[in-house]
UniProtKB/TrEMBL annotation:
GO molecular function: glutaminase activity
Annotated binding of substrate, by residue: S83, N134, E178, N185, Y209, Y261, V279
InterPro entries xrefs: Beta-lactam/transpept-like, Glutaminase
Alphabetical GO biological process terms: glutamate biosynthetic process; L-glutamine catabolic process
Protein name: Glutaminase
Amino acid sequence: MFESEASVVDQQVSTGQLPTWEEVEELTALAYAEYRDLDEGEVADYIPALAHASPDWFGVSVAEVHGRIHDVGEARHPFSIQSVSKAFVFALVCEEFGHDVVRERIGANNTGLSFNSVIAIELNEGSPMNPMVNAGAIATTGMLAGISHERQWSRIREGLSAFAGRELEVDAEVYASEMASNQRNQAIAYLLQSYGRLNRDPHETLDVYTRQCSLLVTGHDLAIMGSTLANGGVNPITGERVVSPDTTRDTLSMLAGNGMYERSGEWLFEIGLPAKSGVAGGIVAVSPGKGAVGTFSPRLDRAGNSVRGQRAIAYLSRALGLNLFASSELPAQPRPTSTSGFGILNN
Ligand SMILES: NC(=O)CC[C@H](N)C(=O)O
């Protein structure tokens, strides 16, 4: 954290606007401790390399917009970003084309169907529907300008690295494994092309999309990437402006509607935060103006969302008063047990 920011934080803590460092540290540790033994959910294996993950891994990280970061458990354990990349690639495309173009070309409505649904494309006359499902994400990746697909790829890697504040690398094993087993995504890409919805060659576009999904991140990185969105597009650690405030607004509203796939409505109702999940077990949840939570645990529910991650974020949303729709300035009391009756969390 920069010194000037530290004094802003001190001031806000002393005026009661922010919880203290110790309070956030303690609540992050409690969110971790509360759910570390929860054994619901399965590790994804439809991409064979993901099946190597331990079901026990669990990390929680909270990053505040002023740069304070709180890590617990395996918050520094690397894993492939998978669909969490969709949020940040959408932000890069939104920055390039603007609100109206992405709404028209991709869409913003939930499919109500699984993230890799083919039928959703057919039911909607070729529309990819939204950038947070595979069809929309593949179409979004295909929109990025760039003479070669290598150039497109470097723009994505550089852009996501700027969100994280460090250079991100591809997990070569995960990339090769998904490229060898992504027949469903190939079907989606060719179907989009048949409807005139893909700007570029389907195979090249899928190659870039699969690389973006294979980038290695940690829960700590996700928290920083999310807090860059929470902070109007400026990375709170590096101070770099990555995208504009308009783009963060559009990205966060897209996450609110679609980031947790067909569970997005329930998620927003229970937790009240824009969020994005990925099948390797990562979730990022963003509270605009406050910060972000990054979690990692490979046990997934049927929609492909990390079970422990959802619970830990639900806990922190309540404990830290992050819910966007809560009118009270005072943080609500966290619910103490894992059987707290969240419908979404009891798949
Ligand atoms: N939900 C996900 O994380 C899916 C991402 C994965 N790379 C896929 O395309 O199937």
